[in-house]
Fold:
Amino acid sequence: MIAHAAHSLAAEAITSAGTGQLVLAAVLGIAAVILLIAWAKWHPFLALVVGAAVLGIVAGVAPADTVTSFTKGVGSTAGSVGLLIALGSMIGALLAESGGADGIVATIVRKFSGSALPWAMAGVAALIGLPLFFEVGVVLLVPIVLLVAQRTDVPLLKIGIPALAGLSVLHGLVPPHPGPLVAIANLNADLGLTLAFGLICAIPTVLIAGPVFGNFIAKRVPVAVPGRALVGAGAPAGDRVGSGPARERRGSGPAGDRPASGPAGGQDFVDRDDLANAGTGEPDEPVDRGLPAGRRNPGFWPAVLTVLLPIVLMLLRAIAELTLDKGNGVRSALEVLGDPVVALLLGVLLAMWTLGKRAGFDRSQTSSVLGGALPPIAGILLIVAAGGGFKQVLVDAGVGNVVADAAKDANISALVLGFLAAVGIRVATGSATVATITAAGIVAPLAATLDKPEVSLLALAIGAGSLFFSHVNDAGFWLVKEYFGMTVGQTIKTWSVMETIISVVGFGCVMILSIFV
Structure:
């Protein structure tokens, strides 16, 4: 069934254009998006809409079909990634406004400082990335990254790149993420071997693409912490005063100065003296921030456990799907509770008590923080959704099939073929999942001729290829760009290059393992 799904894209193509026309359409569509954003200074949302129109026109797609395809992609992306961003932002807002984030940040900086901090961030991201979808990990980790960058001398990219690398590597190489699982099922690979090989490859890949590359690129692409950091998104727009960069003095939040009352205004943030002297207390004791009367710090462990709840629920779901039979009552319950949307919703409900109530917020103040988390992410949601629409037009026009057909006819090693097929489809469509499914379908007949370890390595080669060079047709590209406040050029130099390093290093590790197995 999976193999059938991989090849069904061709039957669903909405144009009869030839190979050359489809390649030209993809090139011109992507070029239009880049030029409109970088040269004409258009908003990315509008640029993506026009880019999809250019792609459809050049590919010979009927205007009505282009509109239908684009809106379908927008709806599916907003309905999945959009919900995760919104719920994750609510947890992040309560985490920031209650003071819970301060406790986490102070503990991280107390235990790891200077050159050790990026390595610690990469390890934490990789650990929690095991059960997480990439988007969920981003919305949960980015608030911590931004807060740490605001309160230390460590450049944003030096800790942000390791965090993103940890999440991305696990997403592409290690089950139970959907991409690796699809490849395993389609190739009939052994799950245990694939998991073991995936973890072996993940370690050097995370280290090279994370702390090593992060330290290199942070010196060459300076990126300031966004003035209106999303970690402070809990404040209603009217409660914010000033629009300058975040300051490090008490009473200055991620968005500038705040009034001294209300859930958004009373947040006190750690200054550098607090962080420098943090080592004098116990690791789980929050730094004394002199909170206003009636305001209580929720504590380090309640904040950590609140963030971990969605992660634990999704991990339990993955374990249940791997170990329990379908129809089992426990598995059925965990499949519901561990669904990303449900897990994050439960995380929000728990945060309302462990962070909001424990911090001294009344019900109206907690509601204000939650409501204030949504307006700042409206632009991100539209951009990510439009990226999904652009990708859908690429897929429906049949661009991915052009790459798939060319790779299928190539007479090369199965590992190289799987990697290159995934690379081509990834670059053309922007979707790691589509790249994984299609590439696995292409090389499935070859898998029958390989032994068990080689089949597992083939699944990993495809996973590595599916991460190659994320650019403007990938919703993740826009998610990272907007969260970190970077330009398109900066995002290509940092995020896109990081993804390419992950892909190449991961595939290199697969090829090395193939020598010994």
Q: What stands out?
A: Residues 82-155+227-376 form one domain. The two ends are 29 Å apart (CA to CA). The mean pLDDT is 78. The longest helix spans residues 63-97.
